Amino acid sequence: MKNICLLILSAMLISSAIAAQKTVGNISERSSVKIALNLYSFNSPLSEGSETLESVIDYAASLGYAALDITGYYFSTYPAVPSDDEIYRTKYRAFRRGIQICGTGVRNDFTVADPAALEKEKQLVKEWIVVAAKLGASTLRIFAGGGVPQGSSWDETARRVAASIDECAEVARRYGIVIAVQNHNDFLKTAADVEKLFSLIRSEAVGLMLDIGSYRTDPYLEIEQTIGYAVTWQVKETVFINGIETKTDVPRVMDIIRRSGYCGYVPIEIIGKGNERERVKRLLEELKSVI
Known about the structure:
Layout lengths: L1 H20 L11 E6 L4 H6 L4 H11 L3 E5 L12 H13 L3 E6 L9 H21 L3 E5 L10 H22 L2 E5 L8 H10 L5 E6 L7 H8 L3 E5 L3 E4 L2 E4 L2 H11 L3 E5 L7 H13 L3
Parallel strand pairs: 1-2, 1-10, 2-3, 3-4, 4-5, 5-6, 6-7
Antiparallel strand pairs: 8-9
């Protein structure tokens, strides 16, 4: 009888643990979403020298972030690729602190019409794909570009952007990297723009960095509209509703993410000056409270 009781108790505990990890409907397991930190959150202190890559890695790890998206701007040689010594020193620092490197990113412009200039932009992305692989990252964030050049149409420019992304994605595929195109309120302003561009992209090694702060009409509706493309994120402190900056409804965003079945890292990014350490801590705690 004692053994039977123990078996029943064990089964109940296992069932309770499984139930605690699930939600109703098609919402995925809670453990499938991990919160990361995009290092652009520390843009000012990193650029001014009051923080270093090492100090931010240490701080993020101490807060319990699962991973880092280390924007390429903060390596010493950017836009040129850093030395292997610098790459592996950064990777080792993260490893020793028990935190993953989930991504990196570059500032590129695939909307440029000049063929020679466009080749340089593509070469930048291709070179940083290799850096991403050496870091052990999964994604390389890129931009579509600054906007429609004079004399071009949106559709013509989109075809050039898509072709450039597909070309770079062939390199990314060989290195096991996913190209993450950010909607950045420049060439890609709306969910409809994102959908149009992705209808032209052929490679499976491409997804969306879903920047919730760059949709400017109904961000929650547009997040739902484009979440199927998402491979990584920028969750921000505020969103814009009909052009008006408003505090992000974090529980609503996380509910959308869970219901979508998205699995992976959800990086946060704060913008502007103002006690970056306290702000990334506060936003992390807010997200953790609802996942």
